[in-house]
């Protein structure tokens, strides 16, 4: 096998090697069963126990009480942008969404297809370089949707607002990366391919009372959260292997010390790269310091003619995945749970060397 790259991909992203090894083994044969985990019925005891353990571990890591349910769905976080309002938004109420960037925009558009949307604030005018503060919610707002971490624009809510309505959070790029004030949330969803495994499943955490809420809208059974809660995520053929890899990643997260330890490591990586971005005369950060994402550091080079050269220089040293999203440009270093500090240290060294050479 070739040497592993320093993988800064935004998602699908780097996965702990021990998780990959165990997944690879189980893809060939699962625990002496004479077949691959991927060949087993989703109703087999083995698969059911994996789903159950994965849900229990999410509850344990976040310290969730009996008032929360954890389910595993398909369709990515993109599907959740529609499924959440389908389940939670009454026809005579509205959802409030602060427009923080690319993924908030997607959420606004998806919710508008289903009901009333209020946008109390937006940072679009300054190219989504911060999280707007000081806004108010109209009285008819039923819940507040936020994008906990804007993967493309590089901002992150460092504190969640205190509101009279539940928060629905798209945590696709920062699920399991830090402890949460869980009492503020009604619903949290995240696709697995950034912080807990491979693409194919989305973890949904939902407060039970929101499932029981009277609905003005008719919800198709397959899109109703209550269906998946009642059937323990096995209403239909679940993405079994993706949930299995998620379980391995959850076990890894727990064994490393849980969410406090993830938060400590992630803060250390972020501090390292942002210090370099701030000190290095060749680079500039794209986001205001107080709202910078711990997961996705976005920055530009002050001499655009050198952009491709820096990408090539990084690639020569096995640093990959740092090209920014086309709408934002520049660079984006995605530093999810599984990315080691050494990879960030190498990137920082390369930024320094490159600046000296130019
Ligand atoms: C914050 C956020 N929300 C939603 C999505 C969409 O997730 P998926 O591609 O799994 O549907 C992404 C994907 O990168 C994301 O970063």
TrEMBL record:
<keyword id="KW-0663">Pyridoxal phosphate</keyword>
<dbReference type="Pfam" id="PF00266">
    <property type="entry name" value="Aminotran_5"/>
</dbReference>
<dbReference type="InterPro" id="IPR000192">
    <property type="entry name" value="Aminotrans_V_dom"/>
</dbReference>
<feature type="binding site">
    <location>
        <position position="193"/>
    </location>
    <ligand>
        <name>pyridoxal 5'-phosphate</name>
    </ligand>
</feature>
<dbReference type="GO" id="GO:0006564">
    <property type="term" value="P:L-serine biosynthetic process"/>
</dbReference>
<keyword id="KW-0032">Aminotransferase</keyword>
<comment type="pathway">
    <text>Cofactor biosynthesis; pyridoxine 5'-phosphate biosynthesis; pyridoxine 5'-phosphate from D-erythrose 4-phosphate: step 3/5.</text>
</comment>
<dbReference type="InterPro" id="IPR022278">
    <property type="entry name" value="Pser_aminoTfrase"/>
</dbReference>
<feature type="binding site">
    <location>
        <position position="103"/>
    </location>
    <ligand>
        <name>pyridoxal 5'-phosphate</name>
    </ligand>
</feature>
<feature type="modified residue" description="N6-(pyridoxal phosphate)lysine">
    <location>
        <position position="194"/>
    </location>
</feature>
<dbReference type="GO" id="GO:0005737">
    <property type="term" value="C:cytoplasm"/>
</dbReference>
<protein>
    <recommendedName>
        <fullName>Phosphoserine aminotransferase</fullName>
        <ecNumber>2.6.1.52</ecNumber>
    </recommendedName>
</protein>
<feature type="domain" description="Aminotransferase class V">
    <location>
        <begin position="7"/>
        <end position="345"/>
    </location>
</feature>
<dbReference type="InterPro" id="IPR020578">
    <property type="entry name" value="Aminotrans_V_PyrdxlP_BS"/>
</dbReference>
<comment type="subunit">
    <text>Homodimer.</text>
</comment>
<comment type="function">
    <text>Catalyzes the reversible conversion of 3-phosphohydroxypyruvate to phosphoserine and of 3-hydroxy-2-oxo-4-phosphonooxybutanoate to phosphohydroxythreonine.</text>
</comment>
<feature type="binding site">
    <location>
        <begin position="77"/>
        <end position="78"/>
    </location>
    <ligand>
        <name>pyridoxal 5'-phosphate</name>
    </ligand>
</feature>
<dbReference type="InterPro" id="IPR015422">
    <property type="entry name" value="PyrdxlP-dep_Trfase_small"/>
</dbReference>
<feature type="binding site">
    <location>
        <position position="43"/>
    </location>
    <ligand>
        <name>L-glutamate</name>
    </ligand>
</feature>
<keyword id="KW-0664">Pyridoxine biosynthesis</keyword>
<dbReference type="GO" id="GO:0004648">
    <property type="term" value="F:O-phospho-L-serine:2-oxoglutarate aminotransferase activity"/>
</dbReference>
<feature type="binding site">
    <location>
        <position position="170"/>
    </location>
    <ligand>
        <name>pyridoxal 5'-phosphate</name>
    </ligand>
</feature>
<keyword id="KW-0718">Serine biosynthesis</keyword>
<dbReference type="GO" id="GO:0008615">
    <property type="term" value="P:pyridoxine biosynthetic process"/>
</dbReference>
<comment type="pathway">
    <text>Amino-acid biosynthesis; L-serine biosynthesis; L-serine from 3-phospho-D-glycerate: step 2/3.</text>
</comment>
<dbReference type="InterPro" id="IPR015424">
    <property type="entry name" value="PyrdxlP-dep_Trfase"/>
</dbReference>
<keyword id="KW-0963">Cytoplasm</keyword>
<dbReference type="GO" id="GO:0030170">
    <property type="term" value="F:pyridoxal phosphate binding"/>
</dbReference>
<feature type="binding site">
    <location>
        <position position="151"/>
    </location>
    <ligand>
        <name>pyridoxal 5'-phosphate</name>
    </ligand>
</feature>
<keyword id="KW-0808">Transferase</keyword>
<dbReference type="InterPro" id="IPR015421">
    <property type="entry name" value="PyrdxlP-dep_Trfase_major"/>
</dbReference>
<comment type="similarity">
    <text>Belongs to the class-V pyridoxal-phosphate-dependent aminotransferase family. SerC subfamily.</text>
</comment>
<keyword id="KW-0028">Amino-acid biosynthesis</keyword>
């Amino acid at each position: 096998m070739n040497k592993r790259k320093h993988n800064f991909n935004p998602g699908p992203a780097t996965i702990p090697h021990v998780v990959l090894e165990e997944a690879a083994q189980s893809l060939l044969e699962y625990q002496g069963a004479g077949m691959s985990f991927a060949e087993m019925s989703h109703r087999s005891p083995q698969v059911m126990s994996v789903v159950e353990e994965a849900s229990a571990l999410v509850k344990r890591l976040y310290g969730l009480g009996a008032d929360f349910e954890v389910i595993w769905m398909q369709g990515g976080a993109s599907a959740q942008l529609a499924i959440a309002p389908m389940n939670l938004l009454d026809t005579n109420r509205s959802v409030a969404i602060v427009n923080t960037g690319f993924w908030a925009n997607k959420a606004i558009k998806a919710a508008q297809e289903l009901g009333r949307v209020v946008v109390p604030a937006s940072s679009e005018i300054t190219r989504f370089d911060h999280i707007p503060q000081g806004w108010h919610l109209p009285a008819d707002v039923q819940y507040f949707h936020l994008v906990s971490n804007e993967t493309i624009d590089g901002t992150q809510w460092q504190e969640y607002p205190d509101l009279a309505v539940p928060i629905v959070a798209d945590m696709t790029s920062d699920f399991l990366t830090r402890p949460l004030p869980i009492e503020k949330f009604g619903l949290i969803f995240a696709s697995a391919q950034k912080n807990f495994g491979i693409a194919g499943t989305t973890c949904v955490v939902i407060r039970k009372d929101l499932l029981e809420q009277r609905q003005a809208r008719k919800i198709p059974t397959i899109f109703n959260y209550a269906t998946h809660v009642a059937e323990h995520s096995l209403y239909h053929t679940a993405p079994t292997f993706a949930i299995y890899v998620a379980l391995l990643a959850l076990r890894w997260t727990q064994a490393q010390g849980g969410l406090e330890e993830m938060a400590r490591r992630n803060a250390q990586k972020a501090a390292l790269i942002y210090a370099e971005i701030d000190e290095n005369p060749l680079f500039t950060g794209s986001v205001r310091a107080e709202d910078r994402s711990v997961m996705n550091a976005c920055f530009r080079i002050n001499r655009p003619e050198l952009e491709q050269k820096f990408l090539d220089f990084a690639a020569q040293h096995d640093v990959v995945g740092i090209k920014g999203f086309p709408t934002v440009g520049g660079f984006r270093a995605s530093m999810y749970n599984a990315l080691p500090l050494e990879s960030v240290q190498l990137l920082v060294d390369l930024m320094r060397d490159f600046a000296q050479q130019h």
